[in-house]
Amino acid sequence: MSIGVKIFTGRASSDIASKIAESYGVSLGKVTVTDFSDGEFQPSFEETVRGQDVFIVQSTMPPTENLFELLLMIDAAKRASARKIIAVIPYFGFARQDRKDKPRVAIGAKLVANMLMAAGVNRIMTMDLHADQIQGFFEVPVDHLYASTLFYEEIQKLNTGNLILAAPDAGGAKRANSYAKKLDTGLAICHKHRKKANEVAEMTVIGDVTGKDVILVDDMCDTAGTLTKAADLFMSRGAKSVRAFCTHAVLSGPAYDRINASSLTELIVTDTIPLKEKSDKIRVLSTSELFADVIRRLVNNQSISSHFIIS
After folding, report:
1. Which residues form the Ribose-phosphate pyrophosphokinase N-terminal domain (predicted)?
2. In whole angstroms, what is the distance from residue 72 CA to residue 206 CA?
3. Please, what sign has the CA dihedral across residues 177, 238, 265, 224?
4. Within the chain, how many helices (H) and strands (E) appear?
5. What is each CA distance from 230 to 22, 155, 194, in whole angstroms?
6. Measured between alpha carbons, how far is 82 from 85 in angstroms, rounded to an integer?
7. Which residue in 108, 134, 172, 258 could disulfide with 97, CB within 3.0 to 4.6 Å?
């Protein structure tokens, strides 16, 4: 075990951070957060980090306090003379704001990248960015991991020779096609039209799913509107079953109700975001061993490319 590695966590990701630390073989570092009556808060490292490689685990899903807590912890580690500061961000929030898709809007993902670098981060480790180009928003190295490392084995177990991969929208076609090529299966795509964000107006299917076990793959599931509409549509077109693999279980608004009432047999997600509630249709795969192994390889200056099964 390398000397000089410490793993800490923000409050939003304590569960996954504990598992990462355990898989790596160290105890989770001690952090306290002081809350003030007006809502302000102050994280503090309760052990020395001088000259250490500090890994701070925190997903940046809403509320924005999660992002700001990560920024404060990075700043605190820098001012405490940490040798290197690596932000382990299992879910990178604001990633959907990766470009100007209409006039007079911010590029939120770039702003977050700027803030992380200004705080003093030396490296970013994250999983399944909503848009690959976000890596280029940073002037520090980015280790972009893929949940396909975990999902591929699970999908193989379900492959009885009747499988077809599917994308819930055109944006996910590249990802689904990568799986389809690797598994040597067919591909189906849902084409959707939105009138406004988080609301699908209409949807059609491209491809024949009759009698097939459909596997939907996507990077995140937010309100589950697209996913459940796609599942219901596939079943109406003669599919035998529909399962979905989504890396980030954002699951906001009516998501749980939609999933429970849908034609989905199962929704498989990772633990990059903790579930708000339980559902018999949702199964969680842990990413802790993957992150721990990448941290180990990073500390020992070893290649991590073996983890990129499908990208």
Report:
1. 5-120
2. 47
3. positive
4. 8, 14
5. 38, 19, 14
6. 7
7. 108
Cβ of 299: how many Cβ atoms within 10 Å? 18
Question: What type of residue sits at position 284?
Answer: V
Pick from 182, 229, 172, 239: nearest CA to 204: 229
C-alpha distances in angstroms, 53 versus 78, 122, 173, 186? 11, 10, 38, 45
Q: Could you tell me the sign of the dihedral formed by the alpha carbons of 184, 246, 116, 304, in that order? A: negative
| Distance separating alpha carbons of residues 181 and 187, to the nearest angstrom | 9
Q: Which of 114, 150, 156, 179 is nearest to 294 (CA)?
A: 150
Whether 19 is a known active-site residue: answer: no
* Residues contacting 233, CB < 8 A, separation 6+: 190, 203, 204, 205
> What pLDDT is attached to residue 74?
98
Q: Using CA atoms, how far apart are residues 89 and 229, in angstroms rounded to an integer?
A: 30
**Whose structure tokens read 């980090």?**
49
Cβ-based neighbour number of residue 217 at 10 Å: 26
- Write down the pLDDT at residue 171: 81
Question: What's the average pLDDT block by block, 10 residues per block, for the chain (311 residues)?
Answer: 82 98 97 97 98 98 97 98 98 96 96 98 97 96 94 91 91 90 92 61 83 95 93 94 97 97 97 96 97 96 80 54
Tokens encoding 266:
């199962």
Which pTM value belongs to this model?
0.93
For 194-207, b/e burial (b = at least 16 CB within 10 A) is eeeeeebeebebeb
Strand 142-145 to strand 84-89: parallel, antiparallel, or no bridges (unpaired)? unpaired
What is the C-alpha to C-alpha distance for residues 247 and 272, in angstroms, rounded to an integer?
A: 8
Of 19, 192, 212, 229, the catalytic one is: 192
- The per-residue pLDDT for 32 is 98
Q: Give the Cα separation of 106 and 3 in Å (integer).
A: 42
